[in-house]
Design goal:
Layout: H1 5-17, H2 21-32, H3 37-44, H4 48-60, E1 64-68, E2 76-80, E3 94-95, E4 99-103, H5 109-120, E5 125-129, H6 138-146, H7 159-162, E6 168-171, H8 174-179, E7 186-188, H9 194-197, H10 200-217, E8 221-222, H11 224-227
Parallel strand pairs: 3-8, 4-5, 4-6, 6-7
Antiparallel strand pairs: 1-2
Helix pairs in contact: 5-10, 6-10
Length: 228
């Protein structure tokens, strides 16, 4: 049995794109978080013209994709295309005390992320908002219920009441990411806001996006006791 030629050619493009250490550094950085080109410049220590060249090669090979920020529309975020990289060696595991997922209102994406995280990892998790609402959105409660998870409707909180200095903070919202101070223990996942469309499909899409990201990242994070 022979593989289809388009599959072979696609794999060849991916391998060719990854045949440069600089591009592998970019891929390693994007394995755990999305980043704007400016953020990537700092993460991988690369000038903008060189980064643009490597990002074009990775984009042409279908390894990365870009999306426009829902907050600052002048900004784009680069994201790894996980299905393009089966079996890729991932970065080493990182010890953390807790993961805190943050969005603006703490009504949907951050709540779903924390609930999903508990299903995948022994590392503690919480959620918070930069401008929290009083209740979790009914669409988030419903999609969680459809997938066997429970979201307490009144469990929203402000980041200042939740986040500690040792936490790994993952912003799952462009607006929250862009309003928070940057830091070494801050990651960003550019997940589209399901509340904007307020449909079952939008909440299912957000749930699937977050679930895929957590499945990829959870094995990389361990508690301090697991490293001793």
């Amino acid at each position: 049995m022979f593989l289809e030629s388009d599959s072979v050619e696609r794999r060849a493009r991916v391998h060719a794109a990854l045949g440069d250490p600089a591009r592998l550094r970019i891929v390693d950085a994007l394995t755990v978080a999305d980043a704007s080109p400016q953020e990537l410049e700092r993460l991988v220590g690369m000038p903008s013209n060189q980064l643009a060249h490597h990002l074009k090669s990775l984009t042409d090979a279908g390894v990365v994709t870009r999306s426009r920020s829902e907050g600052d529309r002048r900004r784009t975020y680069v994201r790894l295309v996980p299905e393009a990289m089966p079996g890729l060696q991932v970065p080493p595991r990182v010890a953390v005390t807790r993961v805190v997922f943050v969005c603006t209102r703490n009504t949907a994406r951050s709540q779903l992320a924390a609930a999903l995280w508990h299903e995948h990892s022994a590392v503690p998790a919480a959620s918070a908002g930069t401008s929290p609402a009083t209740r979790v959105h009914p669409g988030a409660v419903a999609v969680a219920r459809r997938h066997g998870l429970r979201l307490p409707p009144g469990s929203t909180a402000h980041v200042s009441d939740v986040v500690d200095a040792d936490d790994l903070v993952i912003a799952v919202c462009d607006n929250a990411h862009e309003s928070m101070a940057s830091g070494a223990r801050r990651w960003h996942w550019s997940v589209p806001d399901p509340v904007a469309k307020d449909t079952d499909d939008a909440f299912e899409d957000a749930f699937a996006d977050i679930s895929q990201r957590i499945s990829q990242v959870a094995p990389l994070l361990v508690t301090a006791s697991e490293t001793s």
